[in-house]
Predict the 3D structure of the following.
Amino acid sequence: MKKYCIGVDVGGTTVKLGIFDIVGNIIRKWEIPTRQEENGKFIIEDVAEAITSVCEEYKIGLEELLGVGIGVPGPVMPDGYVEVCVNLGWRDRNPAKELSKLLALPVKASNDANVAALGELWKGGAAGYNSAVLFTLGTGVGGGIIVDNKIIDGAHGVGGELGHMTVNLQEAEACNCGNHGCLEQYASATGVVRTTKKILTESLEPSVLRGKDSFSAKDVFDAAKEGDELALKAVDVLCMYLGMACANCAFTVDPEAFVIGGGVSRAGQILVDGIFKYYVRFTSLTQKKAIIKIATLGNDAGIYGAARLVL
Amino acid sequence: MKKYCIGVDVGGTTVKLGIFDIVGNIIRKWEIPTRQEENGKFIIEDVAEAITSVCEEYKIGLEELLGVGIGVPGPVMPDGYVEVCVNLGWRDRNPAKELSKLLALPVKASNDANVAALGELWKGGAAGYNSAVLFTLGTGVGGGIIVDNKIIDGAHGVGGELGHMTVNLQEAEACNCGNHGCLEQYASATGVVRTTKKILTESLEPSVLRGKDSFSAKDVFDAAKEGDELALKAVDVLCMYLGMACANCAFTVDPEAFVIGGGVSRAGQILVDGIFKYYVRFTSLTQKKAIIKIATLGNDAGIYGAARLVL
């Protein structure tokens, strides 16, 4: 009888793993270090080993597992092929096939941000919906799109790479990707700080942030919540571009819900309200609006979503 | 034995119909007028009548039909519900259910632009692919998104409403929808003319279009093809915003192909090349590119796609 499934979230420093029952209760979660040596050669073996030994400990036979889902920090092609995964050193790999061979179990792989979106849809901020778009606002901006409970990986593995949607053709500075005016340049933690510094330089407006050697995105949001006008302006820029990105997703995949995750999402309601204001403005074509929510699973979204891949 | 299916494309003036065999050969296509009287009350009855009589004429029994697909000029909810369809006068209707009742056959409905995209994927510009995004450049800009051979209708019926993606936050003029800076404002026939007039007003640059009382999008493209610098600039604006829209679709649904249809697409290769140039620039994150093609089915895309709905 198949009673369990495993979710694996491979990151650059640690691999997170979780055993779930098939309705999504977490039975055990744990981490192992990501062995980057020899271009990440041992990562998949380590994962297989970790699964086998923990299942043994929990007296779960591999035959009781429906399968293993795995989130990978890079583009994954529809057949599981990974051309390159910079953070792990992988080139020309098929982690799903490799792990499946080692465990003699069905294994499905997908991009880690997409998998996190599936996790938030299954058990997190978008639980109860069938479709959702997740924006992960961290150092960069990641994303994932779920339609009819399925990840949109895309034909070239860049489905849901929402941080690199172009939102401003007037941007002079280049994004890390080489393009100008990517969402990531405004909606990431780095982006908020950049925007704030720009406003500080271009105006004489007083602000608690003025004169500080350095400050974080959290500092900007904290100042905004205290009513600091300049910080509010910086937050508004982020919300404007994210609202535009949400609207553009509404006119492409039209999800039931938008979920905002990542470190920046800890700012909470100020973010939801700000994004929603612009999202509504940019979707004046229709009265029907999706909801916008904060993600709830944090770093566990990946293992939840990965497990859901095989259900 | 189920050997045939029917595609219906309901427009504001005429309803187009087609009988297809199940591999997509068209057996007969014809049109009936759209009876708008009494809020389009008789349209579905007329369609049922038209199907019955032509099937009779072709000695095709209704039991030989797999079903009927129907494209509707407005948002269609996942259950077939149509809240409002301005061009037909419909309010609170379920055309699929109504037609299904009249014919005792399975009927599926979807938005007409989405259905056209499915048609182009099945037998047109994107034939042979599993995913595609169609931009229909006419008086306005419509669109449709197909992933894994299925239409993305969206949770609120605005999936693939690509003409209303916001592409320019600096736009002063309002779009018909009330928003500012929609793709439609630049990439429609109306949009090209508007852009050209703007450049004519703002510069003294010579152009064959200068001094004309009125000109069409075709005139602009014709002038561009003859090397008219001003017309080339106007075409470039369209290509820039469409290239941006393609790039943003690449980072959301990441299709194999983009298909450009509608009257403006008759401009041909100049359009494909121009859009591709910007699409490549705005997707610098990835080396893998989708192809961009001109639609091939013209006004028949709707009946093809509608028929494909029930296969």
Summary: Chain A touches chain B through 47 residues (CB under 8 Å). Residues 131 and 147 of chain A are 4 Å apart (CA to CA). The first helix of chain A runs from residue 37 to 40.
